[in-house]
Write a structure and sequence with these properties.
Blueprint (H helix, E strand, L loop, with lengths): L1 H27 L10 E6 L3 E7 L7 E2 L9 E2 L21 E4 L7 E6 L3 E7 L6 E2 L10 E4 L1
Protein name: Peptidase inhibitor family I36
Keywords: Signal
Length: about 140
């Protein structure tokens, strides 16, 4: 009986460990934590098309000019290799932005480089936003606080 309880305990522990291990990759691809666990810029409306994933390191406030940033991923959930916007500059080509969980920061997408002009603020964990405030395909910089 003791052997049977020990075996059941070991199987339960192994199942829990596997569940934990499986949960981590799911949230890394965005399955458990919304579309992605970063700040995600999407080429198309509705969180579609090519993406740029931005995970600001501690102390880094933003990207002052998105010209050199590119849409370098396709459909982050299934690793597709062909999609609308792949390889294009993020600057003035973003339709949707999602602020995934990267530490409770608020993100602002700005009309001008160097954080100037109109901006659109996106709270941590909000649903993907089609850029408003005249910023649809008119994004030049991004900041976080």
């Amino acid at each position: 009986m003791l052997l049977k309880k020990t075996a059941i305990g070991a199987l339960t522990a192994a199942a829990l460990a596997c569940g934990t291990l499986l949960a981590e990759p799911a949230s890394a691809t965005g399955v458990a934590a919304g579309p992605c666990s970063y700040v995600c810029f999407y080429y198309n409306s509705g969180g579609q098309g090519a993406t740029m994933l931005w995970n600001p390191p501690a102390g880094w406030q933003g990207i002052s000019d998105l010209q050199s940033s590119q849409f370098s991923n396709c459909n982050i959930n299934n690793n597709s290799t062909a999609c609308n916007g792949l390889g294009r500059s993020v600057k003035n080509n973003t339709a949707t932005v999602y602020n995934g969980d990267f530490g409770g920061h608020t993100v602002a997408v700005w009309y001008n480089s160097n954080y100037g002009g109109a901006h659109y603020t996106i709270l941590d964990g909000d649903t993907p936003y089609q850029l408003g405030n005249g910023l649809y395909n008119q994004d030049a910089s991004v900041s976080a606080w």
